[in-house]
Design goal:
With about 190 residues, the chain is an alpha/beta fold. It has a single domain, classed as Alpha-Beta Barrel (TIM Barrel), CATH 3.20.20.60. It contains 10 helices and 6 strands, in the order βαβαααβααβααβαβα. It has a 6-stranded parallel sheet. The mean pLDDT is about 95.
């Protein structure tokens, strides 16, 4: 799963050619932007993706080109004021497989400071509204979470997929555990 930096076809195609199975595209504001992302993820005639999957074929096999349009997952991030206004049309866009909630930028869109696992009632209600719109249009919905507890709560609320923390968060937690274990071992004399 690769989150590209922007809804830019070259970046999307490069990530897919390197073997990504799913693409997360940030800051989708309307159906035109959603269609642009879809087009970058699909080979003709369904899209405008160019052919260059040397690495992807090594990962996914020799039938990659004929199967990629059905297998690649596109997640559109809803996280702006405009995206919230155009939520239904984004969710209705053919080729968008899932809606991904970016909680920090969504906080900005709601006039709040960004924070991990935001329990604010307006933020939670907005996430639920996004989830319900996605489900009405047959799309899966993913919530980015910073902790296992918040992620479990999102699953209980009906989200289909959660990201539990981040790679950096996991590395930091692992390093903290090792440092704590090291310091405890030094203190105990063992």
């Amino acid at each position: 799963v690769v989150r590209v930096g922007w809804n830019e076809p070259a970046a999307i195609m490069k990530a897919l050619d390197f073997g990504a199975s799913a693409i997360i595209v940030p800051l989708i504001n309307n159906a035109d932007e959603a269609r642009k992302a879809v087009s970058a993820c699909r080979y003709p005639p369904a899209g405008d993706r160019s052919s260059g999957p040397v690495r992807a074929m090594q990962i996914h096999g020799p039938d990659y080109i004929s199967e990629a349009n059905d297998d690649v997952i596109l997640m559109a991030m809803i996280e702006t004021k405009e995206g919230l206004v155009n939520l239904e049309e984004i969710c209705a866009t053919p080729g968008v497989d899932a809606i991904y909630i970016g909680p920090a930028d969504l906080s900005f869109a709601l006039g709040m400071a960004p924070r991990a696992d935001n329990p604010d009632p307006l933020h939670m209600a907005t996430c639920d509204r996004i989830k319900e719109a996605a489900h009405r249009h047959g799309k899966k919905v993913c919530m980015h979470c910073a902790s296992a507890g918040f992620a479990a709560g999102a699953i209980k609320r009906g989200f289909d997929l959660v990201m539990i923390t981040s790679d950096l968060g996991s590395m930091i937690a692992g390093v903290k555990l090792q440092i704590t274990t090291f310091n405890e071992a030094l203190k105990s004399g063992s």
